[in-house]
Hints:
By secondary structure, this protein is mostly helical. 91% of the residues lie in helices and 0% in strands.
Amino acid sequence: xxxxxxxxxxxxxxxxxxxxxxxxxGNVFAKFLEGALRNPGAADGQQGRLFIGFAAAExxxxxxxxxxxxxxxx
Length: 74
């Protein structure tokens, strides 16, 4: 396997993380809605944690995308 093929294979594997980040974001919002529907009074107190979880999942997706782009073009 030459170096170019290894770079593209690594970029493809790193890009999987971007797709998995969307699953993570979906899980964050699903669990928030599940908890908010069970206890609507506590939903306002949990909204900050919702955005922290969203930001963390999205950050990991963007990080994997950046790694994939760096592997392709560098």
